[in-house]
Specification:
With 240 residues, the chain is an alpha/beta fold. It contains seven helices and eight strands; from the N terminus they run βαβαβαβαβααβαββ. Strands 3-2-1-4-5-6-7-8 form an eight-stranded mixed sheet, with helices on both faces.
């Protein structure tokens, strides 16, 4: 059984990821910035017989909140096997880098990049106590530079370049951190759920949360310790 923390787990792909990982016998902490929302999510799971779950408050843009979450985990379990950095925001609709305000751009990066980094930094001492630690960063195909440069690129992506660039920065973080932590046997990988119907895209996605969670779950339980610094999707890999 692994002890797993998922940020932004009270709804959408994060919630479904928690559900599937708990069903596999892992103990999952559902992180949410609003503890009551996290508790409602836990209650939903317990109502269907999934009891190996617990809500924990964590706001990834608030260093004090992250430290409090770490202290809670330290007191309860003393170690952490898997950190899934799932919490993210899309930003304003039709936000293009050529037009978006700096305030809007900074807000997106604060959650999608800096939030992931500071959460990871704070949780690393707990991960280092695990015999098989893993960090899973939830990204998006829109972050892929190779796909954006392709002649077959999605023409609609240009309307979401602020969000896309924040995830591209996350991709860079994943590679650099994977190389940094390789000798400590800490796996760091990226995964995209695909275009999944959640409130991030006003539920316009083509995949269900159940489908979107599958590649995240697969990466979270991966046993091949040589796999690090990679970018995965359902059924394959994504070019950086």
């Amino acid at each position: 059984m692994k002890h797993i923390l998922i940020t932004g787990a009270n709804k959408g792909v994060g919630f479904e990821t928690a559900k599937q990982l708990a069903q596999l016998g892992n103990f999952v902490f559902l992180g949410s910035r609003d503890l009551s929302a996290g508790q409602r999510a836990v209650d939903q799971l317990k109502a269907i017989g999934i009891t190996n779950v617990e809500a924990i408050q964590i706001e990834v843009t608030d260093p004090d909140s992250i430290k409090e979450a770490k202290a809670t985990l330290d007191a309860k379990i003393g170690t952490l096997d898997v950190l899934i950095n799932n919490a993210g925001i899309s930003g304003d609709a039709h936000q293009q880098l050529s037009e978006s305000s700096m305030e809007s751009i900074r807000q997106v990066f604060e959650t999608n990049f800096f939030g992931v980094l500071q959460t990871t930094q704070v949780m690393l001492p707990l991960l280092r106590k695990s015999s098989a630690p893993s960090i899973v960063n939830v990204s998006s195909e829109i972050s892929s530079l190779s796909m954006n440069m392709s002649e077959n690129r999605n023409s609609n992506w240009k309307h979401y370049s602020t969000y896309g660039s924040s995830k591209t920065a996350l991709n860079g973080l994943t590679v650099m951190l994977a190389n940094e932590l390789r000798e400590e046997n800490i796996m760091v990988n990226n995964v995209t759920p695909g275009y999944t119907a959640t409130d991030l895209n006003q539920f316009k996605g083509l995949k269900t949360p159940e489908e979107g969670a599958k590649p995240i779950v697969a990466l979270a339980i991966l046993t091949d310790r040589t796999v690090t610094g990679k970018f995965f999707k359902d059924g394959g890999v994504v070019g950086w």
